[in-house]
Amino acid sequence: MVRALILNKEPEFSARIEEIDSSRFPVTDISVEVQYSTLNFKDGLAITNKGPVVRTWPMVAGIDGAGQVLASSNAQWQVGDLFVHNGWGVGETHWGCLSQQAHLKSEWLVKLPSIFTTRQAMGIGTAGYTAMLCVMALEQGGAKPGQGEVVVTGATGGVGSIAIALLSQLGFEVVAVTGKLTEEAYLKSLGASRVIDRQEFCTPGKPMQKERWAAAIDTAGSHTLANLCAQMQYGAPVAACGLAQGADLSLTVMPFILRGVQLFGIDSVMAPMSKRQSAWNRLAKDLNLIKLESMIEEITLDQVPEYAKALMAGQVAGRIVVKL
Fold it and tell me: What residues does 102 pair with on adjacent strands?
């Protein structure tokens, strides 16, 4: 029997820890022991039923997992190999990783870089892997240290926290945007040079505004992303990876045709394996593990439903790691 967080739709929505027989798991070419999982924004939506994330019921929640292989019919994976998993519809259409075991597809798994423990891998999770994809996109767009300030929205969240740590480690001057100004000391400890209130960005603004930013990572969408695009320096890149404020985006083409602003959309769910492995290799090289540890709060599986509520209420900073 395996303990897992099960989401049920009937007779009414529920999110409960249950013991399930491993025979109920889907048939795949790899079965794994999940040592650690985590809570991402999408997990919070699913567990609190605040968004249409789950499409197959019942569902084992959890889009991320790290641990070791228990059985494999794929020659590339041996029993005992350490893995990390992010995305691929797990926790949405395929049973997820907030469970002591999971049955996954070998083509979904990344070999865990030797520098990381499975706990650290989930301290990073989809949030940190997404942050690295954002940094790589900014570099692709020509961003280099010394060009000016790089702004990161949703700064106390998982993506924002790790993005700040990565950018500062790479030599960028980082400005953190947050609604939690009481977390200024935390954000500066990660490497932010200054902290500003998100209220500057979250209402409609002019289509072209004063040039302020050399690059940007945005987790909010909506008016925040529109204002950022209107404030970018000539040719500057923006990496958009979230919709915490909203999925809407009301802007004009003016920043793109008058200033050459570059807007990169960041997808972490279905990104090809080559990009995933590159991102994890870069994390192994560029992420300060002391800063990572300062972001982590470890909880048990039984605590997940309450922490999911806190996450959706904006009461969580940094990264939540779930010990299975």
Answer: 32
Question: Which residue, 57, 100, 105, 46, is CA-closest to 77?
Answer: 105
Tokens of 280: 């994890």
Q: State which CATH number among 3.30.2280.10, 3.30.420.40, 3.10.310.10, 3.90.180.10 fits the domain covering 2-112+293-323.
A: 3.90.180.10
pLDDT tens sequence across 189-199 = 999 999 999 99
CATH top-level class of 126-265: alpha beta
For CATH 3.40.50.720, the residue range(s) in the chain are 126-265
- Transcribe 143-174 into DSSP letters: --TTSSEEEESSTTSHHHHHHHHHHHHTT-EE
Cis-peptide, bond into residue 52, ω within 30° of zero: no
Query: What's the token pair of residue 44?
Result: 């919070």
- 197-231 pLDDT tens trace: 999 999 999 999 999 999 999 999 999 999 999 99
Cβ-Cβ contacts under 8 Å for 110 (sequence gap 6 or more) = 83, 84, 85, 86, 273, 276, 277, 280
| Rg value, the chain, Cα | 20
C-alpha span between 167 and 139 (Å, rounded): 11
- What is the rounded (10 degree) CA torsion for 91, 97, 103, 108? 70
Do the beta carbons of residue 324 and residue 37 sit within 8 Å? yes
274 SS3 class: helix
Please tell me the distance from the alpha carbon of residue 182 to that of residue 154, in angstroms, as a whole number: 14
- 43: tokens are 């997990």
Nearest to 124 by CA among 291, 236, 264, 265: 291
Separation between Cα atoms, residue 125 and residue 39, nearest integer Å = 9
Q: What is the pTM of this model?
A: 0.92
Residues of the chain with CATH 3.90.180.10: 2-112+293-323
